[in-house]
Amino acid sequence: MIRRSTALLLAALLLYSAIAVVYGDSTYTVHNGVYVGEGRGCYGPIKVGVTLEGDKIKDIQIIEHNESPGVGAVAAELIAEDIIKYQSIAVDAVSGCTKSSNGVVTAVKEALKKADIDITPYLRRPDTSIVKVRGRIGKNADIVVIGAGGAGLAATVSAHQNGAKVLVLEKMPMVGGNTIISGAAYNAVDPKRQYAQGIEDSIEKHYTQTYEGGDRLAKPELVRTLVENAYPALEWLESLGMKFKDEIFTVLGALWPRSHKPEKPLGTGYIDTYMDYINKHENDIEIMLNTRATELIVENGKVVGVEAENGPNTVIARANKGVIIATGGFSANVQARNYYNKIWPDLTNLKTTNRPGITGDGIWMAEKIGANLIGMEQIQLLPMGEPGTGSLSGNIEQGVENRIFVNKDGNRFVDEGARRDVMTKALFQQKDNFMWVIVDKHSYPTGDTKNNFNETIDQLVEEGRAYKADTLEDLARQIDVDPANLIKSVEIFNMAVDKKIDDPFGRTLFEHKIDTPPFYACPRVPTVHHTMGGIEINTKAQVLDKEGNIIPGLYAAGEVTGGIHGSNRLGGNAVPDTVVFGRIAGESAAKAE
Ligand code: ADP
């Protein structure tokens, strides 16, 4: 829980006053003071302090919340600002953050009720029509970047370091994209950290696992660019101030212990690092939020700018040197993923781990002007979605080595260290496409130990998103699986840890046995996670047309591109993809004539 201004607020609470004011013939009561209310956000309660002055909402403090950093947390602040601006709680939810927005609205409503005032005036929808006059905004920069996620911001910093002035267009009201909510694992062959842990590795092994793990469908030169530059790009992030933990782990589907974890939660470390740089260079870098790119502007065969929508306005952004597309994949576009899907059962009703803005816009814009698309049918599902939301949050695994999966009968059914597609296909064979992740105290030495999504295990258990027991038998009873089966599954797994041979499933990644209470379980279902296909690029991140020619002025980086991961992206390879190719795109575009 994040606590802000609590002391100040308590002081203010003591000062609130109901003052009777005589005005003409009538007397009314002014409820000056700070009133506290609570609502429910995405990940627990949101508590606000509403300052009333003369029955006007003067200020709203978000006192306590557990919304995602950089996403729900930003939305909560934006909604609070709107409520103050319009003196209304009937404001529109922040796009993609409905639960966080509603949580603040409910909390403010409760606070107003406590103030014992007539809340009817605050329920009126604000009249925003006054600003809806259509206009045209002209912009000019050396480079226009579309999308302020991991790849777009890496490209922005890199382009600026190479001497360019940059304009970034982002359709959401905040930066960060999927990158900021990702598990943030970063695969790189690391001469220091892996060596310190006695982990043998090589660039060649990373290359082979990535290429073979994607069924040799990736472009070899792009795989090589990724694996060779992953560690230098990590050092580049460090040079910008980013901190990684010393301990190396194996993220789900990474196939090898070379995953790095940032010190900051989720993907906030990457985005904060880029934004710190960008904020220091605001004379040369502009980010336009709520600005959706719609078309690439092409003149004489060269991409020279972008057309975008910003509220009622049309933005014409001219680029002297080039345009970089970094709009992410299309996992949140049900129509597109159904159109391209050839591998999975119908994806209509599956949830996604992605944010709602990840609809493939950049892919369609590039295709429209002749870019080649590759691997579009390669859609990655994870076996790790939270039932109901599809989100990765609530997942209790800390790494591959120390957890098993069991189905509704309490039986293991797959090598839990396998490729992501292999595990998800196996999950589709289980009853209700449903499984439990089982861990023990080794993963959570204390109740306040956090998972990879900044949630403590105590919090998850309290919210009913995970289960805890002192015996496997009790755990089985709580999650309604056959206790004998669960106990047997764990026993066989523990034998495999001893022998380093997993007879039934061939698993090779082990560390501790599951033998130390408390034991924990959390439910998981398949969820749409990553689209490996997209715009074809070369090793300089230049976009290619259907004949393999470079499209002048156009670059792409990150999940919007194809050809880097083949049929299956290794866990932990997406973030280095955004950093490596974002960095290259920025440099290539800045150095263009
Ligand atoms: P990557 O991991 O490849 O960097 P992300 O998902 O992190 O991708 O970021 C993609 C960003 O692009 C998101 O912030 C998303 O909102 C933004 N975006 C998507 N489509 C558009 C568009 N048409 N105009 C501007 N921004 C867009």
Commentary on this structure:
The protein is an alpha+beta fold and 593 residues long. It has 16 helices and 22 strands. The chain has helices at residues 6-15, 72-86, 98-114, 120-123, 150-161, 193-196, 203-213, 220-239, 268-280, 334-340, 361-368, 420-428, 457-462, 472-479, 483-499, 574-591; strands at 2-3, 17-23, 26-41, 44-53, 56-65, 136-146, 166-169, 186-187, 259-260, 285-288, 291-299, 302-310, 313-325, 373-374, 379-385, 404-406, 435-439, 467-469, 519-531, 534-535, 542-544, 550-556. Strands 6, 7, 10, 11, 12, 13, 21 and 22 form an eight-stranded mixed β-sheet that branches. Strands 1-5-4-3-2 form a five-stranded antiparallel β-sheet. Strands 15, 16, 17, 18 and 19 form a five-stranded antiparallel β-sheet that branches. A hairpin with a 2-residue loop joins β4 (44-53) and β5 (56-65). α5 runs parallel beside α9, α7 packs across α8 and α14 (472-479) crosses α15. The longest helix has 20 residues, at 220-239. Residues 1-28 have low confidence and may be disordered. The structure holds adenosine-5'-diphosphate. Adenosine-5'-diphosphate (ADP) is lined by residues 146-152, 169-172, 177-179, 292-293, 326-328, 357-358, 361, 558-560, 578. Residues 146-152, 169-172, 177-179, 292-293, 326-328, 357-358, 361, 558-560, 578 line the site of adenosine-5'-diphosphate (ADP).
Straight-line N-to-C gap? 50 Å
Bound ligands, each once: adenosine-5'-diphosphate
Shape: globular
Regions with little confidence, pLDDT below 50 for 5+ residues: 1-28
Mean of all residue-level pLDDT scores = 92
Strand content: 15-25%
